[in-house]
Amino acid sequence: MLYFKMLIILLSTKLAGDLSVKLKQPAVLGKLIIGIVIGPAMLGWIENSEIIDEISEIGVLLLMFLAGLETDIHALNQNRNSSIAVAVGGVVFPMLFGLVTGRWIGMDQAHALFLGLLLSATSVSISAQTLRELGQLQSRESITILGAAVLDDILVVVALAIMMSLFTAEEVSLGLILGKKVLFFIAIIFIGWKVVPWVLKKLAPLRVSEAVASAALIICFFFAYFAEFLGVAGIIGAFAAGIAISQTKYKENVEHKIEPIAYAFFVPVFFVSVGLSVSFHGMGNQLWLILMLSVLAVLTKLIGAGLGARLTGFGDKSSLRIGAGMVSRGEVALIMAAIGLESGLLREDYFTVMVTVVIITTLVTPPMLKALFANQSAELPQKSEE
């Protein structure tokens, strides 16, 4: 049965991606929508399972690893102030308006705060893939989006820790959580600078097939594991691994070898897995709430993150692009929703609503980016003076 599922997933994503491109939309949009079509919400050909979840997790790690490989670290450093402003705006606005909206629809203080926090999450895996398809992954806007996503993850995780210590019975040490984040970034900077080139140099000459690609995957999965061990999203670790390898002479070799592995199998499963979370059962009575929260989710990121970009020197169009790139909540928000349900910070009757809102933000991001980048030349980062 697993073989049949893989057959359906791979065939349907390729056909849907091709159709999406013919309709002048990014291929990723068709791949996301086909997950809903073949999943429990419509045809019911594919149901979520542990093995699909695990394959999709590898897919999103490889997606962000490849994004890291293509990221210019000097441009990332040049745009750090903009990334900070975008991340802060992209957290504050959704948090504030989510809290107000939660109270307005009758939630108590704790549940309303968690709603705001859930809306503050960002996952740029879908944005990164869309920008890659559009040939804009090296643009200044994209560099800022990727940097802001890393900071957004830190801010949201710290806020979640504070919330769980205040509103649940769990004992959460804020100092320990912050210490782990600091340790992670200090460690990956050192490992990426000193250890990664040494590991590649030692493993590359091994007389085994695809030694360099295997070494790169070892580094990617180590960084992802290390990130999750210290309470940071695994995709941030994979992204950091890509950046580290991009600074070595093996960059092109690794990209050439890993890209077929990722896009032939693992990434399509990830795209489909997003759609498998959708269920239309019992949504009729909550449709107005889903629509309201979806609009709120899109606008607060567009305005908050876009304002951060505008205040740090970007033009109106570029600021909108950056805001749009931060809209997708993706797998990060889905994980947070599950944590909230388990800890009592998200009521069960709101769980399906929030999962649907997360899916909607993920689906609207590719066409928004396509429209905003259409017929526009990329605003490339300026090279630093030697």
List the SSEs and their pairings.
Elements: H1 2-22, H2 27-38, H3 50-69, H4 73-78, H5 80-104, H6 109-120, H7 125-133, H8 140-167, H9 174-203, H10 211-229, H11 234-246, H12 251-276, H13 287-311, H14 316-325, H15 330-343, H16 348-373
Features:
386 residues; mainly alpha; Na+/H+ antiporter like fold; 16 helices; 0% strand; globular; disordered C terminus
Description:
By secondary structure, this protein is mainly alpha-helical. It has 16 helices and no strands. Helix 5 packs across helix 8. It starts with a helix and ends in a 13-residue tail after the last helix. Residues 377-386 have low confidence and may be disordered.
Q: How confident is the prediction overall: mean pLDDT?
A: 85
Helix content: over 70%
The CATH topology turns out to be Na+/H+ antiporter like fold
Provide the CATH top-level class. Mainly Alpha
Number of domains: 1
Largest sheet: none
Cα(first) to Cα(last) distance is 58 Å
Number of strands: 0
Order of helices and strands: HHHHHHHHHHHHHHHH
Task: Provide the β-strand percentage band.
Answer: under 5%
The second-level CATH architecture is: Up-down Bundle
**Which term fits the overall shape?**
globular
By DSSP (H or I, 4+ residues per run), the number of helices equals 16
Helix/strand structural class = mainly alpha
Using the CA coordinates, give the radius of gyration. 20 Å
User: Segments where pLDDT lies below 50 for 5+ residues?
Assistant: 377-386
